Amino acid sequence: MEAGFLLLSTAGSLFEKVKHDYEVLQGNQLDPYSAFNFFVTAEHLPEWVGKQELKYSNPYLRICSHLATGAKHYIVTHKNKTQVKSSTVDIYVEEGHVEGDYFEEVLTIQLSEVEAENIGASSIPILELADKIVEFWEGYFETLHS
């Protein structure tokens, strides 16, 4: 019996799925299916590279783990995770304009005091968080191949 799930058989192939999910999320950051896919997949990369401790050593991976764990239980907050306080949809309006085309909705994660201190902000837009997670893993896999 071969290891893996269909074409997902290595940590590198799972990272390719993370990047695919990231591209989909970029297309619609308010889509809960896309957010779920991205964070749940990214949550499992430390296991696939055999370094579970990575998710505890990086604030963005800790936040990802919190969101993925909460998502499996249909909630943003989770009693065993303390990185995230809540999620909100923030609406930004281009100054001086009030027409519908000038509104932008952004899903934002409100962080715990500890994680806010770690990243230097009390909240983080979901795409910025996804950027930081992909950036971390790109660096990780580049280091393996250099």
Give a short synopsis of this structure.
The chain has helices at residues 11-27, 32-48, 54-57, 59-72, 113-119, 126-144, and strands at 84-93, 103-111, 123-125. It is of the alpha+beta class and 146 residues long. A 3-stranded antiparallel sheet has the order 1-2-3.
Output the number of helix runs: 6
DSSP summary, beta strand count:
3
Give the H and E element order: HHHHEEHEH
Radius of gyration over all CA atoms, rounded? 16 Å
The major sheet is characterized as:
3 strands, antiparallel
Shape designation = globular
Hey, roughly how much beta strand do the residues contain?
15-25%
Key traits:
146 residues, alpha+beta, 3-stranded antiparallel sheet, 6 helices, 3 strands
Task: Describe it.
This protein is α+β, with helices and mostly antiparallel strands. It has a domain at 11-82 and 126-144. It contains six helices and three strands. Strands 1-2-3 form a three-stranded antiparallel sheet. Helix 1 runs antiparallel to helix 6 and helix 2 crosses helix 4 (59-72). It is globular, with a radius of gyration of 16 Å. The relative contact order is 0.13. Residues 89-94 have low confidence and may be disordered.
